[in-house]
From TrEMBL:
<keyword id="KW-0479">Metal-binding</keyword>
<feature type="domain" description="Blue (type 1) copper">
    <location>
        <begin position="55"/>
        <end position="173"/>
    </location>
</feature>
<dbReference type="GO" id="GO:0009055">
    <property type="term" value="F:electron transfer activity"/>
</dbReference>
<keyword id="KW-0186">Copper</keyword>
<dbReference type="InterPro" id="IPR008972">
    <property type="entry name" value="Cupredoxin"/>
</dbReference>
<keyword id="KW-0249">Electron transport</keyword>
<dbReference type="InterPro" id="IPR028871">
    <property type="entry name" value="BlueCu_1_BS"/>
</dbReference>
<keyword id="KW-0813">Transport</keyword>
<feature type="compositionally biased region" description="Polar residues">
    <location>
        <begin position="30"/>
        <end position="42"/>
    </location>
</feature>
<dbReference type="Pfam" id="PF00127">
    <property type="entry name" value="Copper-bind"/>
</dbReference>
<feature type="region of interest" description="Disordered">
    <location>
        <begin position="23"/>
        <end position="42"/>
    </location>
</feature>
<protein>
    <submittedName>
        <fullName>Azurin</fullName>
    </submittedName>
</protein>
<dbReference type="GO" id="GO:0005507">
    <property type="term" value="F:copper ion binding"/>
</dbReference>
<dbReference type="InterPro" id="IPR000923">
    <property type="entry name" value="BlueCu_1"/>
</dbReference>
<dbReference type="InterPro" id="IPR050845">
    <property type="entry name" value="Cu-binding_ET"/>
</dbReference>
Amino acid sequence: MKLKNIIGVITVLTLMTDCNEKAKSGHDPLSSSEISSQDKGNELSNGPIAILTLKAGDDMKFDLSELKVREGQTVRIILHHTGTIPASAMGHNVVLLQKGVDIPSFAAACAKSDAPDFDIPADRLKEVVAHTKMIGGGETAEIEFKAPPKGSYAFICSFPGHYAMMNGMFTVE
Ligand SMILES: [Cu+2]
């Protein structure tokens, strides 16, 4: 019974995601079915280190939209850019934001940044829990940090125009 409920919730969430994707990309049935068959979250681990591997390619999508860790864990995020386009045109990073950050405003500040490859401007770093560097096709970036207090935190890619497609929720349980 409980499992049934969980499956019901997952189905609804998947359908919602599909609708959003269709609205954004102008309905592409192939990519929608790919999305619904994807595993959208990581397994919660019990060890002292939570290792989260994220992939993003030239299609401007993270393969996971829900990351979960436990309070007190050390979190290692490994980002693989599986595409071929360089960081100057198709850069990806993972930026874990503090609670309550105005994401459009934050992303706009990054888009105007003088930092190389539209990285995070120094004056907005206080809004960030942790972030990887900006990488291009074929590259990998890694960060390690202590899990913040329990709660939900948004993560985005801060490359100009990417956050609407490339975002997710990071939950500390
Ligand atoms: Cu990106």
